[in-house]
Design a protein that fits this description.
By secondary structure, the chain is an all-alpha fold. It is 69% helix and 0% strand. It has helices at residues 3-30, 40-62, 73-100, 109-122, 124-131, 135-141, 150-169, 186-209.
Length: 219
């Protein structure tokens, strides 16, 4: 019943995953001395920017974003401003949560906020692309049995994998191994990115495997 949407989802995820790969490989060619560890913040913002640009373009071209009731320029600008505001508030939220979990409050504040930007690009941005700047829809999707489409289920899976990946990535930091990837926030951002990429693979596979048990109606 949902084979078309699942194929569209898999294609979309493949394109987004490719953008992460290109954001890692291209700077190696274009920027002297670039490395994921040595110039980590540059890599982090490269991935964030690539995922943001590609996700917005792909979801818009596929028409996944919720339809607007009004087509006036003012209304569209209002949605754009609210989306940017939600994204910024998401960065502040993730920054606060990471600090509460033990990240330095003042020292390495730039690194902590950069991690928050990456997390927002991998999670909040997808919510904005699929659901729009609608807090009630976000609460519905992430509540129990709140998914109303395969894309809602996809959101649940990818966001969960990304957050868990970042959390698991924090475990090696206090270990006395003196590895370059233990520098804050390298392991967390790598964990979030790996979790995100894993979620991109798992989501369409899980939905395809359980499609007969899913009872909601597609939008």
């Amino acid at each position: 019943m949902w084979d078309h949407e699942i194929r569209a989802m898999a294609s979309t995820h493949a394109i987004i995953a490719a953008s992460v790969f290109m954001a890692t490989v291209l700077p190696v060619v274009l920027v002297p001395g670039f490395s994921v560890y040595g110039t980590h913040l540059l890599w982090l913002y490269s991935v964030s920017g690539a995922v943001t640009a590609v996700s917005v373009a792909v979801f818009w071209l596929l028409g996944i974003s919720p339809p607007t009731k009004k087509h006036t320029l003012g209304y569209k600008l209002s949605r754009l401003v609210r989306s940017c505001l939600y994204f910024f508030l998401s960065c502040l939220f993730f920054h606060t949560v990471v600090v509460l979990y033990g990240a330095p409050l003042i020292e390495s504040a730039l690194e902590t906020f950069s991690l928050a930007v990456l997390l927002s690009s991998l999670t909040t941005l997808r919510c904005l692309c699929v659901l729009g700047p609608n807090v009630h829809a976000w609460i519905r999707v992430f509540s129990r049995h709140g998914a109303m489409s395969v894309w809602d289920t996809c959101l649940q899976i990818t966001v969960a994998f990304t957050v868990v990946g970042a959390w698991v990535g924090a475990f090696p930091i206090p270990l006395d191994w003196d590895r370059p990837w233990q520098v804050w926030p390298v392991s967390c951002s790598l964990g979030a990115t790996i979790g995100f990429l894993t979620g991109l693979v798992v989501a369409p596979a899980w939905i395809h495997y359980h499609r007969k048990q899913l009872t909601y109606k597609c939008k």
